[in-house]
Amino acid sequence: MDAVSDPIDEFSFLAEQAADAGITAPLPRGERIAVGLPDGRTLSALRYGEGTPVVTFLHGAGLNAHTWDTTILALGLPALAIDLPGHGDSSWREDMAYVARPLAADVIVGMDAWTEGPQLLVGQSLGGLTAAAAAASRPDLVRELVVIDITPGIDPNGGASQIRQFFAGPTDWASREELVERALSFGLGGSPKAAARGVYFNSRVRPDGRVEWKHHFAHLANMMSAHPEAAQAQDAKQDAVSAVLGESGWQDLAGVAAPLTLIRGDHGYVTEADAEAFAARLPEASVVVVPTGHNVQEEIPLPLGEMLRERAGKD
């Protein structure tokens, strides 16, 4: 395995990813872009292809915009993938409000800056709830909404205790290789090569040479692990918080004027009962079941890219 600590361009993985997926189309041009938020923070994103984006992607908790790389290669259309606040190269939120409506307000600033027409807006997990909030508050930005493997009331973090366990330990590491080994030991990241890519995109080298996770969740989880009493208190109020967020999430989805589709993995976070509740509340929405887990964009990127290309109205 190549040393993941070596400095490389963040788009240099695209050729390898395309080859691994069997994609032979020419690689799109990728660029890193950023916009300032009203409070001085920065929102960062990746823009792919020529022309203005027609599809905008929002990732899940603990991930970053590069989770969509192979899906965007399969899509074959100009696309925008946003690093949610607290993730990737976007600034952390001091208020730690990593829930749909505050995140949507930040995302809308980016969409206003980087898109010129209504988008096919695609969000997975936390990004799906955020996308619904954005679509409800700014219908002019969204021509169709696709929510991937999440419905309101489901914890988009996949269980706080599991996340804290993975991120427990040092807050910094000697090398990215150590992080790859840790991810693989938890059964995360897929193959060693894929795990190395994931660690590269989700970590940074500090000026002192030590390596740390980019996303704020890792540091919050580490803090909770160091203070078990705080973690217990957080878990105790989780049900009440989930109920409030769940209701606001249903309100957001009900307020979406654009066509709406839920794509769920047959062994992801959304159960059959959850999907039935979704269909009952939103009878005009579509529900598509695919043979995969929660991170649909990483497990079956080619079929997902093809489905999204059809919804984008392009051949």
Q: Kindly provide the name of the CATH class of the domain at 14-156 and 244-311.
A: Alpha Beta
Note the beta-strand portion.
Answer: 15-25%
CA radius of gyration: 19 Å
Helix-and-strand structural type: alpha/beta
Please state the average pLDDT score: 86
Put simply, the count of helices is: 12
CATH superfamily of the domain at 14-156 and 244-311: Alpha/Beta hydrolase fold, catalytic domain
For the largest beta-sheet, the strand count, sense and barrel status come to: 8 strands, mixed
Walkthrough of the structure:
The protein contains twelve helices and ten strands. The chain is an alpha/beta fold and 315 residues long. It has a domain at 14-156 and 244-311: Alpha/Beta hydrolase fold, catalytic domain (Rossmann fold). Strand 7 (203-205) and strand 8 (211-213) form a beta hairpin. Helix 1 crosses helix 2, helix 2 crosses helix 12 (301-311) and helix 3 crosses helix 4 (126-137).
